[in-house]
Write a structure and sequence with these properties.
By secondary structure, this protein is mostly helical. The chain is built from four helices and no strands. The longest helix has 18 residues. The radius of gyration is 18 Å and the shape is elongated. About 0% of the residues are buried.
């Protein structure tokens, strides 16, 4: 098998190498934890991260570009 045949198509490569969504997610988690100086327990931190993640997921409405071609 030729290594060029194993490569992804252009739209798949764009999706794989796009880190904007990941960076945005991490930034929002840091923003939520940065406002707190200390956490009472590990569970308190986990609860805050969980609730922040749920808020991020609710607001995440951007569709994946060229999803039909990727499938």
């Amino acid at each position: 098998m030729n290594f060029r045949n194993a490569w992804f198509c252009y739209c798949q490569t764009q999706l794989i190498y796009t880190t904007n969504a990941i960076e945005n997610f991490n930034r929002q988690l840091r923003k939520a934890t940065k406002t707190k100086s200390a956490f009472v327990s590990d569970d308190a931190l986990m609860k805050l991260l969980y609730l922040t993640t749920m808020n991020i997921v609710d607001k995440w409405t951007m569709p994946v570009k060229d999803w039909g071609q990727i499938l």
